[in-house]
Each structure stands twice: as C-alpha cells, then as structure tokens.
Fold STAS domain-containing protein.
Amino acid sequence: MPTNNEANKEAKQPLTQTTINIKPKIQPKYDVHRDVLSHDVVIKETGYGARDKSLPYALKQCWHNWSFAAMFTGIIPILQWLPTYSMKRDFLGDMIAGFTVAVMHIPHGMAYGLLAGVSPGSGLYMAIFPTLVYMIFGTSRHISIGTFAVASLMTLSVVQTYASEETELPTADKEIVTPIEVVTALALTVGLMHLLMSFLRLGTISALLSEPLVNGFTTGAACHVVVTQLKDAFGLQVPRHKGLFKIIYSLIYLCREILHTNLATLIFCLSIMAFMTICNELIKPYLRKKCRFPVPAELIAVIGGTIVSMVMEVEPHYDIQLVGPIPTGLPTPAIPRLSLIPNLIADSLAIAVVTYSIVMSLGLTFAKKHSYEIRPNQELFAMGIGNIVGGFFSCIPLACSLTRSLIQEQTGGVTQLASLVSAILIIMTLFWTGPFFRYLPRCVLAGVIIVALKPMFMQAKELKKFSKQGKLEVLTWLCTFIGVVLIDIGYGLVIGVCISLLNLYIKGLRPYSCLLGYIPEASAVYVDISNHRNAFEVPETKIFRYTGALNFATAISYRNALYKSLELDIGKTKRTVYVPVAQNGAILTNGSPQSHLNTSFRFLVLDFTTLSHIDMAGGQMLSDIMNELKKYGVRLFIASPADRVYDSLVHSMAFGGGPFEIFPTLHDAVEYANACRKA
C-alpha cells in the first residue's frame, strides 16, 4: 500500500490527457481578511426575515404594482406588437408567408379532416377560426396553427368510440350521435381543459412529456395514421374497430381482404406518393437554393388528382371513392352537443396535454432563434379560446404543424399577421373552389398523408441519441412506442408518462454526490477529488456534496451515499474509539481489529450549495447522522445552505432536531474545522 506522501507525489504527476490552458489577459487578485462567520451572524447582519410577508402587505404591493393597461395587453398580446408593426419592413414577408402557408393548409386541412373522421371542410375551417383567435391571444410569432396528424388521429379514436355507426337507427333509449357532434364537443372540452390549466398556472406541465416520450409517442401515432390510410390506398371497406388493439385488428382485416384490392385506386395512390417523393427528395432541395418559395407538392398533387378524376370520371368507371361534397362558404355557428362532455373529459385531457406540448416545443424553438419570449400560461389561454371558438364552427382540436411552421418562418413570416393572410385565402377557396374538390379521390389524400409522415418516422433515428443519455430514456421511448402501436394511443401515452415519472424518481434517488478536496494553488476552491487528481483532502476533514433534494423519498439514499463516500458501515459498528495520531501532516487511523469504522477524520462538512430542498424527514435524517457520528468523535458542520434550506433546518431544530452548526460558506466551515483541529 502506498503511503500518503507517495500518493501525493503520484497525484502531482502531469496528466496524460490533453488540457487546455486559457488565461485571461487580466488576472485580478483578491485577499479576504475577516473572522470565520457562522450563519447566525450573517442572518443578523443582513436583516434576513425582516421584510413583511403578511397577506395585507402582499395585497398592498399587488395593488400598487397593478396596471390595467399591462394586464390588458398581457391577455391580448397582439396589442403589444401591432402598434409597432412596420408595414414597410414586415408586411411583404408576412404576406408571402401567409400565401405559402395557405397553399399548404388546403391539402393538409382536407387530408387531416378526413383522418379525424369528419368532412374535409372541418380541416379547412381549422385554418380560419382557431388561427385567427391564436393571432390575437398567442405569443408565438411563427407557428402555424391548424391541423396536425397526431391531433387528428386522437380525435378519430374518440369519434370511433362515441359516434354512431352509419347504419345504426335511432331508438327510444339511444340517440344518433354524428361524428361532427363528437368532434365539436371534443374541441369545446379540450378548450375548457386548456383554460382550466391556464387559470391554475400549469404552463410547465409540458415538462412531464420528456423528449423520448414525445418522440416515441408521435412515431407510434404515425404508425396508426398509416394503418388508417391503407383502406383508402387499397380501396377497401374496413369496419370500425373500437377498444384496445385496434391497429392489430385493422391489419388482420386488411390482410384478409387484400385480394379485393381496387387496383386502379392502388395505382392512383402509388402514383401520387411517387410524385410527392420525387418532389420532396429531388426537386425541392434543388430549387431551394434558387427560389424563395417551396414547391407546393401537396397542392399540386391534390389539384392534379382532382383534374384527372374529373377528366377520366374515375368514380363510375373505376369505382374509385371520392371525397364528396364540400360545403361552400363558412359554416353556421352551432352549439356543440353538451351532453357528450362528461364522457369526453379523459380523452380531452390527453389531447389537451399533447397538443399543448407540441405547440410549446415548436414555439420555444422559434422564440429562441428569433430572441423573443413565449409565455406558457398565455399559450394555454390562447389555445383554450381557439378550441372553444372552433367548437362552434365545426373544427377539430387545434395543434400546429412543424412543416407549415418552418415554411412560415423560412418564407419571411415575422408575425402572426401571416395567419390573417392565410385565413383570407382559405375563405376565398371555400367560397369559389369548394365544389371543385368534391371530385378529389380519397386515395390521393391517403398518399399525401403517408408521404407527409416521413419526418415522424425518421424520428426513430433519435433512439441512438437517447441510448447515449441513458437506458431509462431508451426504455421510455420503447415502452411509449410499443404501447401506442400495440395497445392504444391513450394507453400508450399513460404508459409513457408513468415511465417518465419513474425515470425522474429513480434519478432523484440517485443524484450526484462526491467528496471535495482543495487545490493548493487556489485558496477557497473545492472540487471533486475523484475527477481532479491535483486536489487534496483537508486534513482530518471530509467534505461531502450532494446535488438534489433531501426529503422523505431521498433521506435513506442520502445517508447511504454519505456513508459510502466516507467508507463507513455504522450499522455493523458496535463500538469504536477514535485515537488520532499525527504523522507528517497525515492522520493515521486506529488499527484495532474490533474497529469497523474508518476514523481518519474528526470533522464532516456537508456542502449544501447544491441542495435544493429539505423537509422534516430530511432534517430528522441529518439529526440521526449527526448523533451517530458524534458517538465516534466526528463533528458535523453544514455549509452554504440556501435561505429556504436554512429555514427548514431552523424549523427542524425547533422540533427537536439538531442543533446544527451552520456556516454561510464552505470555506468558513473548513477554516473553522482547521481551527478546531489545531486547538
């Protein structure tokens, strides 16, 4: 075994790894000469706790700082940016972006309206009413509100559960419930959920949906979307499946009926998919370097498919199913079927959380890029109002599309005024070209949807990145994906959330902890001795740092981590007597064969710099640790607690814990331990 001196010499050997030595041009120095302070002295000198925290004082301050104008513009963000809007600088970009996004809204709205189980017109209405509401109340300047595959798929699941079958007749006990009645009631309920979450200040709820969860969920949902489109791609009539394992039953039925495929429908669909793939993979990347406007492959496919359908009369000659009549003009406002709301609460909550997470993730991405602020609770408010208004105008629950949002930003969109331009163009489309699209084959929209899902399937590549983050991230992705694909969308989401919470709990029970040492050349600098070879332990003193919270859930793990770092096994130690022997600055331990406790230190400093919270159970655990170590001649100090942690320690001492010796900084505690050692 090497001696302490030999170990120190070995530690001072040059590092084999490459190091970067960056020195500032100016190296200021500071010298501090003062007495070692206890935390109580600092508390008295700084007047901690002297501020009035009573309810009357808080109400008085709130009234003093309250401003009607600030509150009004906070609720209606358009009043903040519209007065400073520059027609010369911003309007051209917004107009171009609005026109381009409108071109994408037409095929997206029709396709995702059908995907949701209602008419294509409902998808087009999504580009008008919720979009205009978000323009007024939303805080993101670049996202494109409207239809999205995942939201439409989750809506379809609800429609299949609660809407009546087409062949079902009304009875005395049961009324007929149409898909549009389910959809509008669902949109209203989702909007109410968003408003409730906004009033409860639950804007951070999206943090529960981790990146692996959202990634696995959307990839699994994409599989569902593809399966729902196969019946239109093959020209088959597939019965509606309710309950769990819908995707499995649908695939089994499709395999049984594959011999009855309408070849004309399949060829038409494959032709559209081939055209869109060539545009997306070859033509768009080439023209992107030469032209500001993207190639509207989806719109070209929809218009081209409609023209071919009209010229060749594909419905009577080839039995290809068409979209059918699309209402001309805007829908008449109608009150949703309120009796459905109690049955839709669970589904609406899931849709509310998922759509909000999608909107927030995209909004934060653009806000970071363009340096402006997104307010989470205001986003909930905007989505809530948008869904409630949409529920009166035959709309499905709103979301935002990554593709449309990127196009809106890349074509020069500066504000949500681009949404106004887009909505005006969609209204013109509904008034003048709506009857034209009645001849659009359903297989064309199926091909558009399937090709548009490619980015969602490509998310599976992220699994490699998650594997580098940890096994629990991979487990979250796999469990969510498998749950969504094999069981159901809602159950898959619940499974993913449970795994994510379990992930957080496990990481909370196993936080980062270490022993600290000092750097001889840098006074008052303490670093992890396991990572820094030139760091040394303070003689007769152990410094333990723990990152995280100390509460009822982590108290035992904190104690175990501490004793493991100190190489103690107090549970097996019956009686140990500390006999310090100084030799060349090193402390030798008692070598008695009946001693199981390493007593090479007399002082233990708990560094609370990175401790975020402590509760009564944590305070009691600290008292137990202090009393256990006191039996073996070890004195415990607490250093650098945050104010809220200090208050919890004082509260714990008031109920019989402690008493703890607390210092304002880690260096104060170490210097005090050195003084006690030399005394």
The two ends are 31 Å apart (CA to CA).
